[in-house]
Amino acid sequence: MLAGDWTSITSPACNGGRQVNMKTQFPDGTATGFVNNRIDPSLFSKAALTLATKYLPTPIDACGQVVYGRRENSDEHMTVGKIDYQQSDKHLLFGRYERGSRVTPNNYNGSVILSLSIPDYVRRFHSFVLGDTYSISPTTVSSFRGTVLRTVNDKSLLEDYYNFSDLGVKGLYYPPGWKHYVRLNVSGAFTQDVSAPGVTNSMVEQFAEDLSVIHGAHQIGLGANFIHSNMNYTSGTWTSGRFAFSATNTGLSLGDLMLGKPSEWRQDQIAAQYLRQNYIGLYVQDTWKATSKFTVNGGLRWEPFMWPYDHVAASARYDKKWFDQGLRSTVFKNAPAGILFPGDPGVANIGTSENETRWMHFAPRLGLALDPKGDGMTVVRAAYGIFFDYPHFQGIGGIRNTPPRGGLIQVPNPVGGFDDPWRGYPGGNPLPFAISSDVAFPLGGTYTVIPQDAKTSYINQWNLSVQKQIGSDWLVAGNYIGNSVVHQMYEHEANPAVYLPGASCAIAGRTYTPCSSVSNTNQRRVLYLQNPDQGQYFSNIVEVDDGGTRSYNGLVLSIQRRRARGITVQGNYTLSHCIDTGYTDIIQTNGGQIPERRGANRGNCELDRRHNFNMSTVYETPQFSNRTLRLFGTGWRVSGIARILSGAPLTVSSGLDNALTGTTFLAGGQPTDQRPNQVLASPYAANKGINQWLNPAAFVQPAVGTYGTMGRSNVAGPGSIRFDLGVVRTFKLREKQSVEFRAEAFNVANHVNACSSNSGQQGTPDCLNTNLTDATFGRVQAVADPRIMQMALKFVF
């Protein structure tokens, strides 16, 4: 390839059976000059050449395959202390202290730089719990708990490896005191990235009081809970910058890399967040034994939601009507229209809080239990409740990158390319800048905002169960479980680019040919088209959207055999279905889906598993009368666990911004809600398996300016089958001494289980490639653990 011959890497042998042809035109309509899948080496970027010749490993075949391993190592320590004090028969005090630390070095293998994907990671925590249980009277018990939890998470690189300046990239700013490194996402080829460095310190104090009172047939519970949380976070996620390369220019992401034509460049200075939050919860409940056969449990919980507040600085607020009215901030005088801050007219007076407190959060619960015959052999239960769900601190982490506190700037298709990404940006590299009332706001700034009227999620949950004891050993049960999530939070793009048809058109006095391409994404965004003078300060506006929904319905059948003749058996089967409109638990600066397409994104939940079967059994060998058999055969406990699980739903991505809306993922630079058209009846390969699960020929790219017809999460990934086996026996040596022998085998059949979810489930991200532009599309990229066996001896004295 470095010599200009790309015929091998574009061949069907390297692209899942598809022939890739290099494009004849760039997005702006100019000719590429590529002939017969050959690129003139004189067109290669200097930075790309340095990367390829000095830092990247030599491929082992013509397809560019590189094989390497990663170092896996960690050192973990745990300390536990406890004390119990029985002051009297009415009064018990206890204390618990726990300390833990885990140090994980980075995973660089010492030779292949692509193996470096995690920084040096130090995690520590201290936890202290104090409890007081006091019996006020024979019918009244008070229980108090106080908890303090402190955590420290430090992610950083302790050594210098290489950064973009080493490649010859110009015009960069690197803040002092941080190690810097190369962050590259070359779609479908390779990723050079290190998990976001930063320091997170948190402290949680909690006090809870529960009072239980028995009065006749009633057991009444009253309680209060107070939690104060704080988290100080300093992030260097974007300080090193990140380039994303797709197949937009050449038809192959590696081609875009070598030509130095990134689809996106992002950089920021150090971002910080100092979050604080208070939580209050009060409840009352009553368990009423109405009759000998019928019990009612009812309760009400009040838990207002107090949004987190920043100890140091307030966050930006955005409203489209403010932009329409031309409202400007008086707190930060250079902020563009539409961006206001607490203290500005029209913004709620909430100080540095992220939003106004929601006081009227009441959650009722009701449960019923019926023993139809009163013999304890059959029980019918039903329940309904409302449960509020509040975002955690990291859930609003993207806000810290929003100007002016953060300066994350997105430059789509930078004019200077890989070699000089800030060339063509008005005024050049704007980093760094100090925060003050007259701080300059960047052009093409990326904003993450929470609407002032944002509602928090809550869940309606209901269930019905029937349990039946058969004989003295068997118990069977059938359970229906359902829930509905209202105001499920996700993120939408509030400033998408608009597709403008036509061969040529003028935008703000400048002519573009064609009208719409990836090179004029920011100029086609809604705010720029409305008001170029103010719209030029915006690229993606990621807005929290509380309009999402989720529903779940499941049937759980279970059977249990109590221990009899040395055998215990438990099993269950779940048939369920979960549907939602999409969900994110971390609001990031990545451009979400367009609100008008919420319905088009309704599909299976990412965690949906249609079938789930589990069975476990324990067998203990009997007490043999024969001395020899008793010596070698008595006392063995043999256990087995079987699990059969449906595959995760997959979303096939087009891999390209065909709709030209400018919405991209944070890490991969891929469109969030753009999918291909399915042209074959089945999306699966003829002999689907680990090597090829999806059939590339079953999909085609939609026309430019349009969305694909495929739905979200509507293709099933590979399921899993796993059997685990364990053997344990204790050998008595003396009265107070014994030795325990234990042997365990996990995945004893050594069955190959694919990690099927394209959202990083089971701890291995992107384990099945669903990006249509990638050479490895449809292939399983990672598998779960093979057979693992371990044995242990424990001496007890």
Describe this structure in words.
The chain is mainly β and 797 residues long. The chain has a domain at 550-582 and 597-650 and 717-796. It is built from 7 helices and 35 strands. It has a 22-stranded mixed β-sheet that branches. Strand 1 (75-88) and strand 2 form a beta hairpin.
Q: What does the secondary structure layout of this molecule look like, with pairings?
A:
Layout: H1 46-55, E1 75-88, E2 91-104, E3 120-137, E4 140-156, H2 164-167, E5 184-186, E6 190-192, E7 198-215, E8 218-235, E9 242-245, H3 253-259, E10 264-267, E11 271-289, E12 294-302, E13 309-310, E14 317-318, H4 320-325, E15 339-340, E16 362-370, E17 378-389, E18 409-412, E19 445-449, E20 457-470, E21 474-493, E22 505-507, E23 510-512, H5 526-530, H6 532-535, E24 538-564, E25 567-580, E26 603-604, E27 611-620, H7 627-633, E28 637-645, E29 649-650, E30 677-678, E31 699-700, E32 715-716, E33 720-734, E34 737-746, E35 788-796
Parallel strand pairs: 5-9, 19-24
Antiparallel strand pairs: 1-2, 2-3, 3-4, 4-7, 5-6, 7-8, 8-11, 9-10, 10-18, 11-12, 11-13, 12-16, 14-15, 16-17, 17-20, 20-21, 21-24, 22-23, 24-25, 25-26, 25-27, 27-28, 28-33, 29-32, 30-31, 33-34, 34-35
